[in-house]
Amino acid sequence: MADVMERQTIPVAGLPCDAEGPVFREPWEAQAFAMALALHARGVFTWPEWAATLGAEIKRAQAAGDPDTGETYYRHWLNALERLVAEKGVADAATLARYRDAWDHAADRTPHGTPIELRPEDFR
């Protein structure tokens, strides 16, 4: 038996890759990915629920004209995550919208390359 098994990567259409496989375009994509895994690990939703919700979000986006090139994949991931969080009662849609707006406000005032921090005034 070989000490090291070679890892084969399969390219995912439209997703950037390096020698190890698919990579994230932006930090928020990695954060959304990690949140979904953490919520699943805590039992908030099952993996079949996740797959069905993500699939439904992708189909909804395609029906609305998304060309499905892979560039919007994590937007669908985020929409699916927010939908499940609301459906499971972790946070309601109004709370999610409030934080989304606060995050946008914080991002607008933050210089490029600087970590974004939410402040109380971002929620106004």
Describe the structure in your own words.
With about 120 residues, this protein is mainly α. The protein is built from 4 helices and 2 strands; from the N terminus they run E-E-H-H-H-H. It has a two-stranded antiparallel ribbon. A hairpin with a 2-residue loop joins strand 1 (about 15-20) and strand 2 (about 20). It starts with 16 loop residues before the first strand and ends in a 15-residue tail after the last helix.
Q: Helical residue percent?
A: 40-55%
Number of strands: 2
Round the mean pLDDT to the nearest integer and report it.
86
Spatial order of the strands forming the largest sheet: 1-2
What is the global morphology? globular
Calculate Rg over CA atoms: 17 Å
Give the topology string: H per helix, E per strand.
EEHHHH
Report, as a whole number of angstroms, the end-to-end distance.
Answer: 61 Å
Strand content: under 5%
Low-confidence stretches: 1-9
Number of helices: 4
Give the class from helix and strand content and strand pairing: mainly alpha
- What number of domains? 1
**Largest sheet at a glance?**
2 strands, antiparallel
List keywords for this structure.
single chain, 124 residues, mainly alpha, two-stranded antiparallel ribbon, 52% helix, globular
